[in-house]
Amino acid sequence: LTEQELLRTVLSVPKIHSIKTKSTTKAATRKSPKMPVLAWDDFLNNAFYASTALDTGNRIFSRSNVTGALSVEDSVVDMFLKTMEATNNQRLILLPTPERWSKRYVCRAVKGQPDAIRCGAGNIQLLNDLDASLILSAVEVKPEQLMKTLVADGTELFNAYNTALTTEDDGTTAYTRHQKIIRIVRQLFGYMVVNDLKYGLLTTYIRTWFFYRQDEDPDNLYISPTVHINQSHTSDSASFLECMYYFENISTTNPTAHSSPPNTDGGNDNDDKIDDDNDEYRPSSSKRSVLRRTFGRITRSQSKKGKDKLNDNEFLNSMKNYKRSQFSFGDVLGNGRSGVIFMTKLHEQVGALKMVDLYKKEYLLQEILNELKMYLGPLKGIQGIYIPKLLKYGVLHEAFVFILTSFAGESFANNRSITEKEKQLAINGLMEIHAKGVKHGDIRLENIMMKRNELTGHSYVWWIDFAWSKMINNTEDLDAELSELKHLLGMC
């Protein structure tokens, strides 16, 4: 096929299986910025104009044959990437700097957890070796079964979003639906912001919306009209794949946009200014009362789920929002359940940064909030001694909750020469955590960090990752966890 023939392929609408639509965006109740989006009015016209320049001479592409059905979100991600592999990726890998649509793990520097990305590398071998160095656009995927309950076919997403912004909370299902629309859009916008991307797309596979951030003011977000998967080329409109082609071209030419901060209604982005110059985080007086209520409940007992949820919401809304421009991301330190850990500088403080999406996986948000509560509550007194020092925490550009802790070196899992003394330091550290009434909950070599001072010969050992930690009064459980560690270290 020629390039024109390939990209004018009309894709079929796959069978859609019914599912129980449970949005992944229900976890956070932090206020969203009241910033309307804008219509990308010329997208379709520009895509059609770009389609008229497609190559018609070189027959170098294979005919696509994509089949399958859609059900849960993962199946939509797979179908989207399978379709791109069979169509647009054929062209993208031939570019001077090869590109492809792929899963996010192809590029280790991706921040957050977008469902897919378009990435590039210096040569095709690096791209095939999952060593891409360039992120060009982010993709967020939602099942059509969910999105059709939020944005009816025939309604444009930018209109639905702006309507949702003005809806007052009346406790009805309609209000909840509007909040889901806001959070889905903010989720993709967050990936674009934190990765300094100008472009992104939201897709159900059946329907796709293209996003871009304005050069003059990157907080101005534009959303295209709906593009259907079976959209064909006509005398005045581009096919779906031709729309993708246009989007690929403009995001290759100018992929980057840097950010200014959003503000939430009632938020105080100037709060805690004095903290920015300090070596440790000290909550403002306005937040201390929230923290007392939060950690008081933790230390007394494990509350019922409903109270915990209310508690988390209050804690989340008390957090300061930081600008994307305040963060300088450095080397990748590792990869965990919540995503990539980066060496990061925030103001004058440098450490390991972990972040979790506000609007994606509820369990990950709950885990990072739990970890914060442990740092600020029962484990506060042993920071910098047996656990890393908490340097900062808060919300990044109203899209992610983050924790910045002091750099703790490398893990026991990555060091084959752990000494008996270092093993004993790990045991001592866990015993100190237990002395605070905390069960760590995730005893692994990856969660024991160490640094050695080559001049003095001293070793320092810290425990990390308190996502599953909890306060308990049962000494038998604590003793069992200590025995588990000793067995792991071969010191039974």
Structural write-up:
It contains 14 helices and 21 strands. It folds into 3 domains: 3-253, no CATH class; 273-405, Phosphorylase Kinase, domain 1; 410-489, Transferase(Phosphotransferase) domain 1 (Transferase(Phosphotransferase), domain 1, Orthogonal Bundle). It is of the alpha+beta class and 492 residues long. 34% of the residues lie in helices and 20% in strands. Mean pLDDT is 88; it is low at 264-281 and 299-303. It is globular, with a radius of gyration of 25 Å. It has helices at 3-7, 43-51, 73-86, 88-92, 124-128, 144-150, 157-165, 173-194, 240-253, 285-300, 305-318, 362-376, 420-435, 475-489, and strands at residues 15-16, 38-39, 69-70, 99-102, 116-120, 134-141, 199-203, 207-213, 221-223, 227-228, 321-322, 327-336, 339-346, 349-357, 390-396, 400-405, 410-411, 438-439, 448-452, 459-463, 470-471.
Beta-strand share of residues = 15-25%
Number of helices: 14
The N- and C-terminal alpha carbons lie at a distance of 67 Å
Main beta sheet: 8 strands, mixed
CA-based gyration radius: 25 Å
Give the beta-strand count.
21
Average pLDDT for all residues: 88
The helix content is 25-40%
Given as residue ranges, the uncertain stretches (5+ residues, pLDDT < 50) are 264-281, 299-303
Q: How many domains would you count in the coordinates?
A: 3
**Helix/sheet category:** alpha+beta
Looking at the structure, what is the overall shape? globular
State the gist of this model.
The chain has 492 residues and is an alpha+beta fold.
